[in-house]
Design brief:
The chain is an alpha+beta fold and 203 residues long. It has a single domain (34-183, 198-202), classed as Lipoprotein localisation LolA/LolB/LppX (outer membrane lipoprotein receptor (LolB), chain A). The protein has four helices and twelve strands. It has helices at 2-13, 17-31, 110-114, 118-124, and strands at 36-46, 52-63, 67-74, 78-82, 86-91, 96-101, 125-130, 133-138, 146-154, 157-165, 170-179, 198-202. A twelve-stranded mixed sheet has the order 7-8-9-10-11-1-2-3-4-5-6-12. Strand 10 (157-165) and strand 11 (170-179) form a beta hairpin. The longest helix is centred in the N-terminal third of the chain and has 15 residues, at 17-31. 19% of the residues are buried.
């Protein structure tokens, strides 16, 4: 183990900008086919001590460059959906809807990364190659809403994400039933609040 740690330290110390650029180029090459994507997910959540906070599952869809949806079906029912202007959160169990402007949310969502937001990745994140994927961390001075994000791949297939937020809470997400050509359009991301829902606008 100690020899591995010495090797790891030396590897980090001798990493070059070219290596970082190669990781970035490889990541974009893998994200390029994901111009649109939909599938299923299972999400495990842990607190800052590693204790389980529960499991959820549902479906998601992404349409580059501006649209994504994250639809939790169990154990509760929630929808997060975004377009060019607004990000909506519909808690179906509480019958509440929250709306925020996309350009005022401040962070970068994992689904925006999947959508290949090249400018945000290049200017706000540092990317390095890991054995099972790519590690993304905020650049110095950047507050993106998470402290580290591991995009996991099996070969060239997206397998999941491991997200550590700024409170040291962890999400481990596994993807399945991926469809890279679902024929999505902007209309698939239209959202109309239910008439009886409590609305909270933070514009």
């Amino acid at each position: 183990m100690k020899y591995f740690l010495v090797y790891l330290v030396l590897a980090l110390a001798t990493a070059t900008p070219a290596t970082a650029q190669e990781a970035l180029d490889e990541l974009f090459a893998l994200l390029e086919p994901l111009a649109q994507l939909q599938g299923e997910f299972t999400q495990l959540q842990y607190d800052d001590r590693g204790a389980s906070l529960g499991e959820s599952r549902g479906t998601f869809r992404v349409l580059r460059p501006d649209y994504f949806a994250w639809d939790i079906s169990a154990p509760d029912s929630q929808l997060v959906i975004a377009g060019p202007e607004f990000l909506w959160h519909h808690d179906r169990d509480l019958d509440t809807v929250t709306r925020r402007r996309v350009d005022t949310t401040g962070g970068i969502t994992p689904l925006e990364i999947l959508a290949g937001d090249r400018d945000a990745i290049v200017t706000r994140l540092q990317v390095s190659r890991e054995a099972d994927g790519f590690l993304l961390q905020p650049s110095a001075g950047e507050d993106v809403g998470f402290s580290r994000l591991l995009l996991r791949f099996e070969g060239d297939r997206l397998a999941g994400m491991d997200v550590l937020d700024n409170l040291d809470q962890r999400l481990v997400i596994a993807f399945s039933a991926l469809d890279l050509a679902p024929g999505l359009t902007a209309a698939d991301f239209a959202f109309v609040a239910p008439p009886d829902a409590d609305l909270f606008y933070h514009d």
